[in-house]
Amino acid sequence: MGWEMALRPSNRKRNAWAVSLMDVQPSDRVLEIGFGPGIAVREIARRATRGEVVGIDRSAVMRAQAARRNAPEIRAGRVSLTVASVEDLPAFDRPFDKILAVNNMGMWPEPGVRLKELAGRLRGGGLIAIVSQPRTPGATAETTAATAREIVGLLDTAGFTALRVETLDLEPPVACVMGTAPSARARSSTSSDR
Length: 194
Prior knowledge:
Elements: H1 2-7, H2 9-21, E1 29-33, H3 39-47, E2 52-57, H4 60-69, H5 71-75, E3 79-83, E4 96-102, H6 111-119, E5 122-132, H7 141-157, E6 161-168, E7 174-180, H8 184-192
Parallel strand pairs: 1-2, 1-4, 2-3, 4-5
Antiparallel strand pairs: 5-7, 6-7
Helix pairs in contact: 2-3
């Protein structure tokens, strides 16, 4: 399955497009949730030449495939891949500049809770990008638009700002919903309001 995911042109195009929207800088520290066969990890590492790419995926098989695909970057210490889930994130030593999740938020338990936790893993002003290409039979452009609206609502509730949606014209279309993490000060004032 992972090799099929890696070779399917639409998957490659979707991942490269999502990474291009994130404006990854050479020194960025980026987390990918659900990295699958490691296509986006490789695209991010090409851009974050002095940075770090950290990936989590719940599948050991996907980790092995992604590790083979990104072996030189792993040996260089620029990429690290871990078997873990979004609901049980590892302890990271410092915040990320950017977070990416491609076609897996629909499988997260309590996505609103997860997004609030991820906001705390980003530096203030950091970017999150949630990508969705509905795979249900009969999915249409409206299915994609409805999913994007749902993601926008969840990100808004989690405290992200400057929300925007980009669309890639595939069959069905792909939506990438991006948001900016609140500053540490805004996070603490929101917490104290509760």
